[in-house]
TrEMBL record:
Transmembrane segments: none annotated. Keywords: Hydrolase, Protease, Serine protease. InterPro entries: AB_hydrolase_fold, Pept_S9A_N, Peptidase_S9_cat, Peptidase_S9A, Prolyl_oligopep/macrocyclase. Gene3D superfamilies: alpha/beta hydrolase, Prolyl oligopeptidase, N-terminal domain. Signal peptide: none annotated. Residues 24-379 form the Peptidase S9A N-terminal domain. Residues 521-721 form the Peptidase S9 prolyl oligopeptidase catalytic domain. It holds the Pfam family Peptidase_S9. Residues 1-26 are annotated as: Disordered. This is Prolyl oligopeptidase family serine peptidase. It comes from the Bacteria.
């Protein structure tokens, strides 16, 4: 909808409520992201929130959060590239950030010597663009190049203006530490949603907006091409083109010596994809052979092995492999027709597979048991042949790290040449630690702690507890609660309490240290709780699928059950219970607001989906129909019961609500938050609204913006819940 007016937005008349989805949307003009009238409304609301929340408490919270974000003592996580260890760093002096590198010996010291590779602040000033780092990929030289001592120099750097999902890719030389100009044959991809990946030093796969008809309805690439250095982008060779119904098309090459393979990836929709082995790419003899596994499965290749991770049951011959299982087979044998698979993991009622990590010779499984991590190291047989696997099998051992109620993350240091892994541990009251160890069985030991984050808040007297409650249908739902020990136990309450949740896209929400939560909430006497509701991945695919589409209400019932349990245990009372959710969690928050307003004293709705009649027509919304349903079909029958924009009733009482979003969010349309806030304001409800101009879906493009946003959240909550 195009709006040309420049005057301030008029206050619309109160529409008939609940809103009629078949009628005219009185606030559709707020979907015009950069329209003058819409932005005038945004500026007016931002000014109101600044006036309402500003003051000494806001300023002190902002300062405390900024100190955490800018701290020089936070862990500089690194990625190994050749002999160097690369890190991206932001602090008070470098708001946009530094891409830098060091050696392992130097990294082990308390004060590593960093070599600056790219200064984003300097680049942003030079090019007058608010660049936000989106990452980089570095080409691994061929074995003969490594043997000749040639350095790793070919990098593709992704940069986003203002933090949007759409970004640019530019080739960068790691030796000269300069971008390679297009005039010198450098690879450059114009701003769009998409990317590039290396084939060889002079060739890339590029998947992006090539013009009309080359993007999917979700706004992602529909085509992938093979682009040769020195040729115009328009002459790049088409490798694969998807259909109008697809979500995302891309391609990549594995550069593991001896196992170089080209793969084309076709995302049909969320939770459904196809992977093709591509040969003779870019020639008349090109062939694409589909890897014949269920569309809902995830496929991973490592050297001679293929892993298949199942989301649904897979009936294969006389066997049925259970959803949530991890299977292994020899890739070449599988492509030749063999269907002999080894079960490496099968879920139980309390366990799920949260991740896998290959090293050169081993596979690490990261398993959750009632939302607590367990690590298993698997060593494959020396050959993927069926006979060999049947004779020796996969050897299993345990990797003991972490502790009670700590989250453990594992990542390979160098998947091609090493069996070393990074190990990160963190907890709600335990600052993060970064360790280094090996998973080679003959040399396994406790991780060598290389870096430890400081304590940003006083944790003496605080406690963490995991609890379980029962949802409406009898399902057992876990949650964590953090705060002063007597408050957590319900012995000294009620206390201001924030309940946080997400519940979607099979994402597991695990314990983690946050200096921001500690300083802005726990130190002030607040209690913090996190609900592991259905829709997430804490108990595998079944936990996620239990809240898909017409079952979405179960996630909201789970969350409401946790809210009631906090009250029943004496931790808080409804007037002092707040909740927050972002993105899909923003839809959760919107449903708490409109379906369970009596349970909460304040609600924060961040970068949310709220208009579930229009969501699939806004930005990337069409890609989420596998999660929520298609509102243009009979699915609207259940979606209208989950659409906060249509559930709002001006005659009902609602708790105070804060809506936050970003003008640069090109994933979840800011119109959702704008329209819901306007609808509630027209009914004279207690609404605070803040929209950051930059930041994308993350909400902030730098630490200053992140600190301001955090201060807005925490000040709103404390003002509403502490009285």
């Amino acid at each position: 909808m195009s709006v040309e007016h420049t005057q301030a937005a008029p206050r619309p008349a109160l529409p008939t409520t609940p809103l009629d989805p078949a009628g005219t949307d009185p606030f559709e003009w707020l979907e015009d992201v950069d329209g003058d009238t819409a932005l005038s409304w945004v500026r007016e609301r931002n000014a109101h929130s600044a006036e309402a929340l500003g003051g000494p408490a806001f300023t002190e919270t902002e300062r405390a959060v900024r100190e955490v974000l800018d701290s020089d003592d936070k862990i500089p996580h690194v990625s190994k590239v050749g002999e160097h260890y690369y890190n991206f760093w932001q602090d008070a002096e470098h708001e946009r950030g530094l891409w830098r590198r060091t050696t392992l010996d130097s990294y082990r010291t308390d004060d590593p010597e960093w070599e600056i590779v790219l200064d984003l602040d300097a680049l942003a000033e030079q090019e007058r663009e608010s660049w936000v780092w989106h990452g980089a990929s570095v080409l691994r030289p061929a074995p003969e190049q490594l043997a000749a001592g040639e350095p790793r120099r070919h990098a593709l750097v992704d940069l986003s203006p203002g933090g949007s999902d759409s970004d640019v890719t530019r080739e960068f030389d790691l030796v000269t530490k300069q971008f390679v100009p297009e005039s010198d044959g450098g690879f450059v991809r114009a701003q769009a949603k998409g990317g590039m990946s290396w084939v060889d030093p002079d060739t890339v796969y590029v998947f992006t907006d090539f013009g009309e008809g080359t993007m999917t309805p979700s706004g992602y690439p529909r085509q992938v091409k093979r682009w040769r250095r020195g040729t115009p982008p328009a002459e790049a060779t088409l490798v694969y083109e998807g259909t109008d119904e697809d979500m995302y098309i891309s391609a990549s090459r594995s550069h593991t010596p001896g196992f170089e393979r080209d793969l084309v990836h076709r995302a049909l929709r969320f939770y459904a994809n196809e992977t093709y082995l591509a040969t003779s790419v870019g020639t008349p003899d090109q062939t694409l052979t589909k890897i014949d596994v269920p569309d809902s499965a995830n496929v991973g290749l490592h050297r001679e092995w293929m892993l298949v991770r199942l989301r649904d049951d897979w009936a294969l011959g006389d066997l049925t492999y259970r959803a949530g299982s991890l299977l292994a087979t020899g890739f070449d044998d599988f492509m030749a027709g063999s269907r002999e698979l080894t079960v490496l993991f099968e879920p139980t009622p309390t366990t799920s597979l949260v991740g896998t990590t290959w090293t050169r010779n081993h596979l690490v499984l990261n398993v959750l048991d009632d939302v607590k991590n367990l690590l298993h190291v698997l060593t494959p047989p020396s050959s993927p042949s069926v006979a060999e696997a049947a004779t020796t099998g996969w050897v299993r051992s345990e990797l003991s790290v972490g502790g009670e109620l700590l989250t453990v993350g594992v990542g390979a240091v160098d998947v091609v040449d090493s069996d070393d892994v990074w190990v990160v541990t963190t907890g709600y009251l335990t600052p993060s630690k970064l360790g280094l160890t090996t998973v080679a069985q003959e040399r396994q030991s406790a991780p060598e702690v290389l870096k430890s984050a400081p304590s940003y808040f006083e944790s003496a007297g605080l406690a963490v507890r995991q609890r379980f409650t029962e949802s409406d249908d009898g399902t057992r739902v876990p949650y964590f609660v953090v705060g002063r020990a007597d408050l957590v136990a319900g012995e000294a309450g009620p206390a201001p309490t924030l309940l946080w949740g997400y519940g979607g896209f099979e994402q597991s929400i695990l314990p983690g240290y946050s200096g921001t939560v500690g300083r802005a909430w726990l130190e002030r006497g607040g209690v913090y709780a996190v609900a592991n509701i259905r829709g997430g991945g804490e108990y595998g695919p079944a936990w996620h699928q239990g809240a898909l589409k017409e079952h979405r209400h179960r996630a909201y019932e789970d969350f409401a059950a946790v809210a009631r349990d906090l009250v029943a245990r004496g931790v808080t009372v409804p007037a002092q219970l707040g909740m927050e959710g972002r993105s899909n969690g923003g839809l959760l928050a919107g449903n708490m607001l409109t379906r369970y307003p009596e349970l909460f004293g304040a609600i924060i709705v961040g970068v949310p989906l709220l208009d579930m009649k229009r969501y699939s027509h806004l930005l990337a919304g069409a890609s989420w129909m596998a999660e929520y349903g298609d509102p243009d079909t009979d699915d609207w029958e259940f979606l209208q019961k989950l659409s906060p924009y249509h559930l709002f009733d001006a005659a009902r009482d609602y708790p105070p609500v804060l809506f936050t979003t970003s003008t640069k969010d090109d994933r979840v349309h800011p119109g959702h938050a704008r329209k819901m806030a306007a609808l509630m304001l027209a009914a004279d409800k207690d609404v605070t609204y803040y929209e950051n101009i930059e930041g994308g879906h993350g909400g902030a493009a730098n630490n200053a913006q992140a600190a301001y946003m955090a201060a807005t959240h925490w000040t709103f909550l404390w003002n509403r819940l502490s009285s």
